[in-house]
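Take a protein:
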Amino acid sequence: MLVFAGLSPHPPIIVPEVGGKELAKVAQTVAGMREWAKAAASANPETLVFISPHGSFLRGAMGYLGCKELTGSLASFGAPQVAFNAANDLALASAIAAEADKAGVEVIEVVRGSRDSCQAKGLDHGVMVPLYYLREAGVEASLVAFGISLLPFEELFKFGQAVGRAAAQSPRRVGMIASGDLSHCLIPGAPAGYTPEGKVFDQIIREALEKMDTERILNLPEELIERAGECGLRPIIMLLGALQEYDVTSHIYSYEGPFGVGYLVADFRIKERPKGAKTGTGAVPGKQVSPFVRLARASIEHYLRTHKLLPVPDPLPAGMEGKAGVFVSLKKHGQLRGCIGTIEPVQENIAAEIIHNAVSAAVQDPRFWPVELKEVPELKISVDVLTPPEPVASEKDLDPKRYGVIVRSKGRTGLLLPNLEGINTVTEQVAIARQKAGIRPDEPVELERFEVIRYE
């Protein structure tokens, strides 16, 4: 039976033998991990199933270490004295593989070194770091060590469901640990560089886990995920799959990002499954229309029916509380049908910005006839939420795939969004932005760049 589920960061620096004097900078995480481990110990797990992004990596399948004894250390991080070994619960691993096979997800046993002991390349730090705190709290359990895969999120969720089914059928008390850090791009100088999307990603993950909003996580924009530079999303998705059939409340112990990487410590309190409930057989939450796009479409339809603006939703949808520039783009049969936006916010929140700009794109874009009500079902709508523009010294600082561009000259302003089909060079991007503003090619301009989170 599944008795514990947790999310753990895995920076070796939070282990005292590695962190040393730097440990004070991650004090919240250390304290959170100790409380987290105590909660795990109170559940008395006999086997722990780990999902680590630094473990066995397979593109089209899930892999687990298949030797009888699992060993590992933090020697590569300067702490060889931090070393653990544990029995491998191969019976549970095989049961998980069998359940995953029924769901169409391939699972492969990976043997490193000899069959008896994975000493050569055994437990990675994604397992070793949370295991340090679990052992400190008195948890002496056998292990199952899975890595991650590039399978689609829906398949990873199905694999998580398979873990949940196998755990429910096991005579042993099973805990599941999703090991992963959030964005690696939170501050300038962060390991993966700085992007504003890093903080947005971490906020969404934290909010979604607090509310157990699985669909929000499964429907994160691909561009946001890529720009966040994370390593924990796939383990989180598998953990949520395992928990799907349970009544669960989440508990966040701590979150911080002192080195530019987000460390979130959480567990999920599993209540007794309702009588008659099936084990892990629920459908995978499907690809849903983004709330941003849904609001834009509703705004257009409401205006065309009533000639009045849609009232701002109360309460505000998640992620729309702040202020930002917003562009709403409409396409019909692959052709642009309208696009209006604001470089900087002019409304009280993002929701209001979407409502106003969606209506403007539909009926006020001077390049097109106003959209008619009968056309609305045929529209493909995208909503771009802009980061604050920043000035750049030259075109060398631009990238048409990553950055949008703003050109300014003598009170005239032109803007072009990033990652547009057919725009492959900075020269093309700037030339079109100039043309939109009525700025000649030989006139000097001030350049600014911005990034967007695109919802489709």
User: Anything to note?
Assistant: Residues 46 and 140 are 7 Å apart (CA to CA).
